[in-house]
Amino acid sequence: MTKYLISFPSEAMVLAPEDFAQAGIDSRAVIEEAKAAGVYVFGGGISEAVAPVLVSADGSVSPEIYPGSDLTGGFCVLEVPTREEAVEWARKIAASCRCAQNCANSCTIRRVRPPWPPPARATCARSTSASRAHSRRSQRRRTPE
């Protein structure tokens, strides 16, 4: 299956103030539907309260980001078998948010796994010897004096 990024910039939501609450309720309902269908991967809104930065390979941080890459609004990533299904989910989200959605194939997101198996669980010599001592004590029978 392929992951699709469905998104919109915040300026696309041109609603009357009284309509925002219902749009939020409706869009959360569509996301819950996607979760129930097992296609929701993750999503959220991009905070406009914190400015994005450009981070270089040497770790330097600059407030100057790539031109045209100022991201705002909301997004979700859905994993579906066909582009047509992704477009249908984008349509449902567009109807609930009351604004058109971008729908793009997303890169494959893979879990990074170490190239070697994790080390075997080490046992503490003290706890092992303490455990053996406890077993010996519990196996001894007390003799009446």
Automatic annotation (TrEMBL):
Compositional bias annotation for Basic residues: 133-145
Biased amino acid composition, Low complexity: 121-132
InterPro entries for the chain: Dimeric_a/b-barrel
UniProt cross-references to Gene3D superfamilies, sorted A to Z: Dimeric alpha+beta barrel (3.30.70.1060)
Domain of life assignment: Bacteria
SUPFAM superfamilies with a match to the protein in the record: Dimeric alpha+beta barrel
Residues covered by region (Disordered): 115-145
Coiled coil: none
Name assigned to this protein: Transcription initiation protein
Organism: Sphingomonas immobilis
